[in-house]
Write a structure and sequence with these properties.
Radius of gyration: 19 Å
Order of helices and strands: HHHHHHHHHH
Largest sheet: none
Structural class: mainly alpha
Distance between the termini: 53 Å
Number of domains: 2
Protein backbone atom coordinates (compact mmCIF):
# COMPACT_ATOMS: atom_id res chain seq x y z
CA UNK A 1 0.00 0.00 0.00
CA UNK A 2 1.31 3.45 -0.86
CA UNK A 3 2.44 5.45 2.08
CA UNK A 4 0.34 8.46 2.97
CA UNK A 5 2.03 11.71 3.82
CA UNK A 6 2.31 12.56 7.47
CA UNK A 7 0.44 15.56 8.83
CA UNK A 8 3.60 17.70 8.70
CA UNK A 9 4.58 16.53 5.21
CA UNK A 10 4.85 19.28 2.62
CA UNK A 11 2.76 18.32 -0.46
CA UNK A 12 5.08 20.26 -2.78
CA UNK A 13 8.06 18.25 -1.50
CA UNK A 14 6.13 15.03 -2.07
CA UNK A 15 5.30 16.10 -5.67
CA UNK A 16 8.93 17.11 -6.26
CA UNK A 17 10.09 13.68 -5.10
CA UNK A 18 7.57 11.95 -7.37
CA UNK A 19 8.62 14.10 -10.34
CA UNK A 20 12.25 13.23 -9.58
CA UNK A 21 11.28 9.56 -9.47
CA UNK A 22 10.11 9.89 -13.08
CA UNK A 23 13.52 11.27 -14.12
CA UNK A 24 15.45 8.55 -12.29
CA UNK A 25 13.16 5.72 -13.44
CA UNK A 26 13.36 6.77 -17.08
CA UNK A 27 17.13 6.91 -16.81
CA UNK A 28 17.85 3.82 -14.67
CA UNK A 29 14.72 1.64 -14.36
CA UNK A 30 13.17 0.41 -11.11
CA UNK A 31 15.70 -2.37 -10.47
CA UNK A 32 18.54 0.13 -10.42
CA UNK A 33 16.46 2.78 -8.67
CA UNK A 34 18.39 4.15 -5.72
CA UNK A 35 16.53 6.30 -3.23
CA UNK A 36 19.68 8.40 -2.87
CA UNK A 37 19.48 9.19 -6.62
CA UNK A 38 15.84 10.23 -6.26
CA UNK A 39 16.67 12.36 -3.21
CA UNK A 40 19.52 14.05 -5.10
CA UNK A 41 17.31 14.69 -8.15
CA UNK A 42 14.54 16.10 -5.91
CA UNK A 43 17.04 18.13 -3.88
CA UNK A 44 15.90 16.61 -0.59
CA UNK A 45 17.66 14.54 2.03
CA UNK A 46 17.23 10.76 2.20
CA UNK A 47 15.48 11.07 5.60
CA UNK A 48 12.96 13.45 3.99
CA UNK A 49 12.33 10.94 1.21
CA UNK A 50 11.87 8.12 3.75
CA UNK A 51 9.56 10.28 5.85
CA UNK A 52 7.28 10.70 2.80
CA UNK A 53 7.44 7.16 1.37
CA UNK A 54 9.04 4.77 3.85
CA UNK A 55 10.72 2.49 1.31
CA UNK A 56 11.51 1.92 -2.35
CA UNK A 57 8.31 -0.11 -2.72
CA UNK A 58 6.29 2.67 -1.11
CA UNK A 59 7.85 5.19 -3.48
CA UNK A 60 7.14 3.05 -6.56
CA UNK A 61 3.54 2.47 -5.54
CA UNK A 62 3.03 6.17 -4.83
CA UNK A 63 4.63 6.96 -8.19
CA UNK A 64 2.12 4.72 -9.97
CA UNK A 65 -0.73 6.56 -8.25
CA UNK A 66 0.93 9.89 -9.09
CA UNK A 67 0.96 8.98 -12.80
CA UNK A 68 -2.67 7.91 -12.58
CA UNK A 69 -3.61 11.19 -10.88
CA UNK A 70 -1.74 13.14 -13.59
CA UNK A 71 -3.66 11.23 -16.27
CA UNK A 72 -7.03 11.74 -14.54
CA UNK A 73 -6.44 15.46 -13.99
CA UNK A 74 -5.22 15.94 -17.54
CA UNK A 75 -8.11 14.15 -19.19
CA UNK A 76 -10.62 16.00 -17.00
CA UNK A 77 -9.09 19.34 -17.99
CA UNK A 78 -9.00 18.35 -21.67
CA UNK A 79 -12.72 17.50 -21.83
CA UNK A 80 -14.02 20.21 -19.48
CA UNK A 81 -16.91 22.11 -21.01
CA UNK A 82 -17.04 19.95 -24.13
CA UNK A 83 -19.68 17.49 -25.25
CA UNK A 84 -20.31 14.89 -27.92
CA UNK A 85 -17.61 14.21 -30.50
CA UNK A 86 -15.60 17.26 -29.41
CA UNK A 87 -15.32 15.82 -25.89
CA UNK A 88 -14.20 12.43 -27.18
CA UNK A 89 -11.72 13.96 -29.62
CA UNK A 90 -10.22 16.11 -26.86
CA UNK A 91 -9.80 13.01 -24.68
CA UNK A 92 -8.06 11.13 -27.49
CA UNK A 93 -5.78 14.08 -28.23
CA UNK A 94 -4.90 14.16 -24.53
CA UNK A 95 -3.96 10.44 -24.58
CA UNK A 96 -1.58 11.08 -27.49
CA UNK A 97 -0.07 14.13 -25.81
CA UNK A 98 0.25 12.41 -22.42
CA UNK A 99 2.05 9.45 -23.90
CA UNK A 100 4.38 11.54 -26.01
CA UNK A 101 5.31 14.09 -23.37
CA UNK A 102 5.04 12.40 -20.00
CA UNK A 103 4.59 8.66 -19.94
CA UNK A 104 7.47 6.29 -19.36
CA UNK A 105 7.56 4.63 -22.77
CA UNK A 106 11.34 4.30 -22.51
CA UNK A 107 10.85 2.42 -19.26
CA UNK A 108 9.31 -0.48 -21.21
CA UNK A 109 12.78 -1.15 -22.64
CA UNK A 110 14.59 -0.64 -19.34
CA UNK A 111 12.15 -2.27 -16.92
CA UNK A 112 9.44 -4.34 -18.66
CA UNK A 113 8.33 -6.12 -15.46
CA UNK A 114 7.54 -2.83 -13.73
CA UNK A 115 5.67 -1.57 -16.80
CA UNK A 116 3.59 -4.76 -16.99
CA UNK A 117 2.65 -4.50 -13.31
CA UNK A 118 1.60 -0.89 -13.79
CA UNK A 119 -0.38 -1.71 -16.94
CA UNK A 120 -2.27 -4.50 -15.18
CA UNK A 121 -3.27 -2.03 -12.49
CA UNK A 122 -4.20 0.94 -14.68
CA UNK A 123 -5.70 -0.59 -17.83
CA UNK A 124 -9.10 -1.29 -16.26
CA UNK A 125 -9.13 2.26 -14.87
CA UNK A 126 -8.22 3.86 -18.20
CA UNK A 127 -10.76 1.65 -20.00
CA UNK A 128 -13.48 2.82 -17.61
CA UNK A 129 -12.51 6.51 -18.07
CA UNK A 130 -12.55 6.24 -21.88
CA UNK A 131 -15.79 4.19 -21.98
CA UNK A 132 -17.55 7.00 -20.06
CA UNK A 133 -16.65 9.46 -22.81
CA UNK A 134 -17.51 7.32 -25.84
CA UNK A 135 -21.22 7.53 -26.71
CA UNK A 136 -23.36 4.68 -27.95
CA UNK A 137 -24.13 1.04 -27.28
CA UNK A 138 -20.64 -0.12 -28.28
CA UNK A 139 -18.76 2.20 -25.92
CA UNK A 140 -17.20 -0.70 -24.01
CA UNK A 141 -15.90 -2.33 -27.20
CA UNK A 142 -14.69 0.98 -28.64
CA UNK A 143 -12.97 1.85 -25.35
CA UNK A 144 -11.24 -1.55 -25.30
CA UNK A 145 -9.91 -0.93 -28.83
CA UNK A 146 -8.73 2.57 -27.90
CA UNK A 147 -6.91 1.29 -24.81
CA UNK A 148 -5.26 -1.57 -26.70
CA UNK A 149 -4.02 0.79 -29.41
CA UNK A 150 -2.71 3.17 -26.75
CA UNK A 151 -0.88 0.32 -25.01
CA UNK A 152 0.72 -0.78 -28.27
CA UNK A 153 1.96 2.74 -28.92
CA UNK A 154 3.19 2.98 -25.33
CA UNK A 155 5.17 -0.25 -25.44
CA UNK A 156 6.27 -0.47 -29.05
CA UNK A 157 6.08 3.13 -30.22
CA UNK A 158 6.39 3.90 -33.88
CA UNK A 159 4.50 6.22 -36.14
CA UNK A 160 3.83 9.86 -35.64
CA UNK A 161 1.52 11.41 -33.08
CA UNK A 162 -0.84 12.22 -35.96
CA UNK A 163 -0.97 8.55 -36.99
CA UNK A 164 -1.52 7.50 -33.38
CA UNK A 165 -4.39 9.98 -33.05
CA UNK A 166 -5.92 8.80 -36.34
CA UNK A 167 -5.87 5.20 -35.06
CA UNK A 168 -7.51 6.21 -31.78
CA UNK A 169 -10.15 8.26 -33.59
CA UNK A 170 -10.94 5.35 -35.89
CA UNK A 171 -11.23 2.89 -32.97
CA UNK A 172 -13.51 5.30 -31.10
CA UNK A 173 -15.77 5.80 -34.11
CA UNK A 174 -14.60 9.30 -35.00
CA UNK A 175 -12.86 8.38 -38.25
CA UNK A 176 -14.55 9.35 -41.53
CA UNK A 177 -14.75 5.72 -42.70
CA UNK A 178 -16.52 4.70 -39.46
CA UNK A 179 -19.09 7.47 -39.93
CA UNK A 180 -19.74 6.35 -43.50
CA UNK A 181 -20.05 2.73 -42.39
CA UNK A 182 -22.58 3.59 -39.69
CA UNK A 183 -24.66 5.54 -42.22
CA UNK A 184 -24.69 2.55 -44.60
CA UNK A 185 -25.68 0.17 -41.80
CA UNK A 186 -28.39 2.52 -40.54
CA UNK A 187 -30.02 2.87 -44.00
Amino acid sequence: MASRPTADADPSTRRRILAATFVVLSRDGSRKLQLSDVATEAKVSRPTLYRHFGSKDGLLEAFGLYEQDNFDAGIAAAVAGLSGPDRLDAALRFVVEFQSTYSLGSLADIEPEHVLQQLKRVLPIIHERIARIIPGDDSEIDAAAVVRIAVCHYIIGGGTPEQFLAELRHAAGLGPSRRRLSRVVDN
